Amino acid sequence: MTVEGSIRLLGDSEAALGDEIDNCRTLNETDIIEKFDKLVDAGVINYDYTYATESRKIGGLDFEFRISNVLKSKPKDPTIPHITKNGTVALKQRPGSDINTHGSEIGQLGESHFLAFNGFSCYRPHYLLLTLDGNRRQWEPLCIDDFRAVHTFLGCGGDNLVFFNGGVEAGCSRLHKHLQAIPKHSFNGNPWRNVDENADAIPFAYFEQKLKINSTPEATLEVYRAGLDFVERSLGYKTTEQNRAPPHNVIMDGMRMLVIPRRAAGNGVVGANAAGMLGMIWTQSEETMQLWLDAGPHNVLEQGGLPGLI
């Protein structure tokens, strides 16, 4: 991935790296991985290099279970401070935010967002695209600033999947408004496999639209608004005057967008975020994976979404 253009890179004092980074320097994929590994080694971010994957075909769908010890230490309560690998308490997050990005920030995405590594990464690397304003909330619908940030990020190169967990029912565990991005490593490089090859078996309603080549942020926003309208009609209620949208997931790259109405995070025992709805399940142990298998992962997805195509 090449990070350039309107991404303003952060230097040493901001990014907590050992070697100075010129703000005008380009970071290629090798540099990104090197930076990621340094931060893991320093205990700033958490990543399990020994993660395991299990692939299953169940109910006509492909599932990839990514088992990572990192998820055992991921705090569910935003009032619990992040403890680094060396036992120290991480510095306080940005005002209004419940996501600690101190030391893991990569650069600024335009005027409204910044790019950081996920403190509990399931991929190498695993990104967060966060609003500079820590008081923005995850239940808000996406807006033009969000898509400008996504457009900047995707325009930097690399083959990444961007997703949004809009609300607790959609799988979010933090309230500061953010999107996530992961490399397309799952399903042999095609995270859309179930949509492309197993669509008839997908047990929940979703909105899908292909994006035009070199689509602008404004055009992408219009696609999202059509998807959000689908969510509102499916769930039977609209975005409120307080700017609280119905729970939904957004998954996109430079070629397409998927929007999924959500009625629950899961079945009360296990739950799925946006990636999980595509069959990419992140679990903390084989025991947790077994809970998924016992419940039937296709059943969990049906309970999390709305059954059947509308």
Automatic annotation (TrEMBL):
Domain ATP adenylyltransferase C-terminal residue range list: 201-307
Domain Ap4A phosphorylase 1/2 N-terminal: 106-184
GO BP field: nucleotide metabolic process
Domain of life the protein comes from: Eukaryota
A Gene Ontology molecular function term of the record: ATP:ADP adenylyltransferase activity
Pfam families, per the entry: Ap4A_phos_N, ATP_transf
Entries under InterPro entries matching the protein: Ap4A_phos1/2, Ap4A_phos1/2-like, Ap4A_phos1/2_N, ATP_adenylylTrfase_C, HIT-like_sf
Protein name: Phosphorylase
Origin species: Pochonia chlamydosporia 170
